[in-house]
């Protein structure tokens, strides 16, 4: 090696180390190493080449010049020349060369290092590369290690090295600068302090490095780029924001330099935000810089205090950057600066800057900036939106800030505070109701009441109105409408001030071509935003359809809008209503509503024709052309949901909030319903019979549900619900804030669970169950749901509505329901571990009750487990949840595990989670026996366990019977009646009742009744009274609950009770009482029940059914057996029934032909062939007498009650209208004028046939009224000369005399119709009969009284009736003919006919009891008083009749004295 050899020639020879290594032939002695080192150095001092030496040291292994990895090069001491030797060699060589050249050693060292640096960094051809390649990084690191050795020997100066580098490189490579800092050669602080031109190159180089994108395969280059940027940023922050106390001038200049560089980078980022978003390169570069704003990246070079000062400064600079827009511009453009529309780069910056501050600090700083700076309103409002979206705790703090600003504004009348408060409140409202209250709610809360901020004085009121007036020229129309519809509170005396503002606002709306008419039919402006124009019209159409469906009439608001808001009606409402769609085959609500509007000419003919043509075109083609994929909201939503799924898997909580806000923004376009509708208390109507949703809406709901299920599975793979972020609850919150989507979601979920449950796969089950759990948690204060087709009387909560879809009536449905509910409860319990304060709301109570019903039913082993409150410590939530993943094959094991879980058992003590026996019975009565999991014997075993072993002994406050058999019996009866009544409301209840478990429950009821009877009879004295009283009190209570309902409801209740009663033992309805040694029967409860309830609703009126009549009579016979004198006790009881319960007497006579066989057979079995009781024989005799009379033979009349004889004759005359002469002959045999018994029989007979006549008119489909009319005519012809027949038409029972019992035969409804029957019957009689009737004593009194009652009947609410001469007779015709007849009767009445023999009887019932009966003038005076009283009543109802009475009944004609 010669001194003149070139570097290239030297590189081709063997290296120094290889030469030395090759001469190691023997083991050196101790001390030889030091001597050898000195010899080598001396040799190199004589013969050396610095270029070759640096190159050789820089690459210790020339055979492998591409060694990679900095860490590997740090081991150069062990793999190549030791660092100590290399450093000594370099120092010696440099010193020798400097001596020869006559230059300083430090200068020569710097130039030599720089020369080598040029060689390393100048290898690559790509001059645009800002990060060194892997080989460059290796060589440069080794070179810098050598420089460190030179520094250790004092052979080089760092400042000189930097000066030489700056001479060579005007724009220093930041990677080289970073490595100089990293290797502790040159500190960045020294560079910033010593280099006066640092700002000229630092900022451009930082921008260039941010813009440079590493190749995808170079991961190390990407990491190196981030390290370089973060190190320089940390240095700038550390030096620029250090404590400014006791600093020299140079340091202060350095601080200003660092702050200036950071501001330049920030302004570059903010300028990129304002540029077109299409410039992706600039966005990616600035985003790379923005990502460095992290506490972990700056904590090494900067202290926490410096970092906080830096973030404060950056936030201030951002909020005040380029304040070009005035307040008026902010007011007009504010709705474009929401979080969803803001630049993601800007929101990311705000989010990173806010991470080191509390909410209080952020809002305080925001207020300070607003008070002391000119701000960029766009940045200020976007910053507030970001805070609200990412941090839920900002909401209450912002409300406090707004209150403080308003208070300050009104105290000092400061407009700046006022405008700030309004802008911040509106910005919060623009984010949606799930984040901040709507603007209308905030405005009403702040100014809508007497306690508002402005209500303290007139000056404050004037200040507010002037402030709002100043905003009018710049206000968007939405806010003007809010101010008009929800004006601030103004005292009455200052009302004119408000009207001035309202007038100004309306003028501005007119200038903007906005009208208050366009706010819709039921407008509730709750926020101003960019909702579609037709949004309110969509809501109005939905509400109108809902009202039309419930009432069947066009809503009044629609009719009013078509007249008073015609512009809105024609341009907004009708276009939404008449949107083209594929019309269903069967007309739905919307079609019916459109047709109703068309019939009243509310839809223009041309618009209707266009609508029908468009619908026809849609039917011919399945789908119109859709928008391009990039603009398709459904496609965008799918992409957003995919990103959300990725964030769930990553557990990124912060980005999740932003993503949910974007999803909500997209949903607002697909479902344009106003979200704030959810804040109103209203009812969502859920149609359970059919799923009629638009195809797009159905697709969106399915996509969201599918994505949620996938997210649940992805998140559960790594963490249980209690360890996950709260993404699921926030996701559900965002979804249900949209009312229209909630409507579609509930419909889809209901039909999915009800109709497609068995088709759901394993992954869907836990996902949907978790969704329902979160939905229930969020919707606890939600609108209630009305299930339309299920005829549920009252609205229910959302969770109960969805639970109703899980019907448990078949084996398949039970298995699906238990699997779904197990999944929901397991998820809720596991999720509840992280929410100890909400452990009572782990899952919907309705699903929990499903499990309480199904698990013991499907798993007999669960019946042995009693909830005793003892917790099984071996069971944990994670174990339960892990079993849910295999719910199809292993659900029984999971269910039992859950059944034993302590958290599951604890819920049993909460009232809303307890399954009461009424609910268990309702579920059991829905089960289809043919598709049940049980056989008959298994069902019997289960029912006996549930009734007798579980609910009977369970305390009442826990849903049981408290050990009371009466309570159990009451629950069984009520459940049976409720089930049958609900099925009677169905269109075809016979089909719905087929195959249910009703027979099984009735069997359990019979067992309980028999056990109660046995327990009553087992004592020393019989006490069957308890069971009888209990049953009749129970049914009386049921009837009292239906008094306020319709007559049809009462009839349903009675029919249901009758079915139950016929299944119960006959002895249960009479009490067997023991008084001393005598045992007798008490039938008061039975009589009261028939008179109070059966009489009111029996059909036909005045007649019990055969089965019911037979049941009551057999009850009497069977109960009589327990008495010592059976026949005597029966006769006594039946005699009491005959007098106090005429309806049962009449029914018994009517059915006697069939009843006699049943009763006599029963009597023979009970009494071993004894003669029948006398009362039964009396009925037979009465029937024989009536039959003989109809055949023309008058036998001796039996000593029976007149009603019994009349009923027998009534039955005998059935169907004999054709043989009119035979009926006449039979009736003529009776002598009403001479025989009192005959007269009573005929009066009762007339009543029975009048009742028959009314029934035939009211229910013509059952029988013809002509037959009854003919016989009524025959009876009246025989009886008309007697005054007794008038008594049955009296309105008061006291006036009926001996015929009071007729009111207990028929219903009150028919009794009200007797005045009408009076005139109907008389108007169809011959003139002779009418004249005889008028001459009848007391006729006029009865006629006037019936006429007044008829007027009251037709004018007031009452039963509907048909005309007496045909179904087409109108009420005015009835009154007209009755009035004519009455006026004629008044004119024909003589004084002598006014006095009747029965007046004296009636007189005792009136207030004129002091008049003497023996004085004719006193009797006439009594008649006169009665008629004067009637005349006074006629004055009120019909003055013409009153005048006729006054004229023809002159008192001087009656009482000459």
Description:
The protein has 1457 residues and is mostly helical. Helices cover 64% and strands 1% of the residues. The chain is built from 71 helices and 4 strands. The strands form 2 sheets. The chain has a two-stranded parallel ribbon. Strands 3-4 form a two-stranded antiparallel sheet. α29 crosses α31. The protein is elongated, with a radius of gyration of 50 Å. The termini are far apart. The N terminus is likely disordered.
Keywords:
1% strand, 1457 residues, two-stranded parallel ribbon, 4 strands, two-stranded antiparallel ribbon, disordered N terminus, mainly alpha, 71 helices
Main beta sheet strand tally, sense and closure: 2 strands, parallel
Counting DSSP H or I runs of 4 or more residues, the number of helices is 71
Structural class: mainly alpha
Q: Work out the number of β strands.
A: 4
Q: What is the alpha-carbon Rg in Å?
A: 50 Å
Task: Assign a percent range to the helix content.
Answer: 55-70%
Tell me, rounded to a whole number, the average pLDDT: 79
| Euclidean distance between termini CA atoms | 174 Å
Amount of beta strand: under 5%
Strand order of the largest sheet: 1-2
Shape: elongated
Q: Runs with pLDDT <50, length 5+?
A: 1-17, 19-26, 58-80, 524-533, 622-630, 674-681, 868-880, 987-992, 1020-1025, 1362-1369, 1396-1417
Multimeric organization: single chain
